[in-house]
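Narrative summary of target 7.
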Amino acid sequence: MKDQPNAMAGRFPGLSSKLIATIIGVILLVEIVIFLPSVASFRTTWLEDRLQVGVVAARVLDAVPDVMALPRDLTDRLLNSAGAHAIVYRREGQSQLIELTNPVMPDTVVTADLRQGDLPSRVWGALDTLVAPPGRTLRVVGEGDLNESLVELLMPEAPLRRDMFDYSRSFALVSFGIAAVTAFVLYVLVSRLFIDPVLRVTRNMLAFRKAPENASLILIPSRRSDEIGILERELADMETELFSMLRQRRHLADLGLAVAKINHDLRNTLSSAQLLSDQVATLDDPKVQRLAPRLVTTLDKAIGFAQAVLDYGRETSIVPQFAPVNLRTLVDDAAFDARVAGNPLIAFDNGVDASLMVEVDAGQMGRVLVNLLKNAREALEAVPGEAQDFRIEARASADPERTVITLRDNGPGLPPRARENLFIAFEGSARSGGTGLGLAIAREITEAHGGTLAHVDEGQGTRFDITLPVRRTEG
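Modeled conformation, tokenized:
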């Protein structure tokens, strides 16, 4: 396995940093949503305070018969206390004005009507004040303390804008403080409940991946009953099963290597014994002539078993090399190799369409067909009694998704014991002395092609279906 040293570089580049950033981001987003109506309320309150000074000035105007008779220093103090350049008082269709001794001529005048109390208008007004260029003059309009009276103030916008920026800075500092404290508290809680267990599981997976045969690295699950607890227990069970499987696989690999060596030498020895038995069979001694066939048959079985074991180890480790193959030709070649084609006791019918092409490894898929046809031939030849009308047929059907190859014979069928152990090496043989490797090899080759090999019970005879997916080339 390839090591990944940077998979767990530290705590903060992973879930922890994302968690902190998410918490702070959400809190700041909430603070921004709160800030807009808050700064709008601050602006409204600030303007209402200035307007109250204008209301006081309006009362003074009401109390004086002639506004022009008011001392200039008094009117200037009233205006300076409101921060205004001029105050207009309107009542019963009449207007009264007081202004500074040295009037200021505004360049740009923006109206702030405090009679509009809806939130969108207030928020828009606050944003307009914050982003407005300097030098503007506000015309503040509000109701007086008497019925149907209005008070208007003309004042520079700069003091309001300055106070709003001061308020915004204070709000931002408080917001960042709240976000930092909240994020820290939530981080500590979430880390204890979620992040630390996830990091523990992740580190265990990375460590176990490097040394899956080290039993001390198997995760010890906690007593949690939530999803993380389930994850820990399932991971511990999986690591335990994988540990046992790898140990068993290693032992089987070592054993298989030893058996393969022994099997190879045994096959050579049996081949030599077979040559000797063939020479012995040529002798004229009656006893030798009677015993020699049995000796030859026994040696043939032993050699066949040794060869089957070697083939089983070799075939299951080769990756299929896919190429377009004519299926009818492949079936004909397999029938010849399995000694089915031309067999005097068995009629073979290849009903596969001559134009049907499949994309398979011709050598491996031919081995599958040979094993199935050979099993069918041996089953029919083992039927006791006189020769019967034995028959083996091959059929194929195809659609845009898959190709199904059917091999069927009209023999006695599979015995119950063979059906129970189909496709299990050394156990799935239907005849005495068989290894059961043929079907095991056939199934593994078919699965390596992405397909399935299945026995179909039709009540009479034996039928196997090979289902192969249609391979599509990308692009």
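The radius of gyration is 48 Å.
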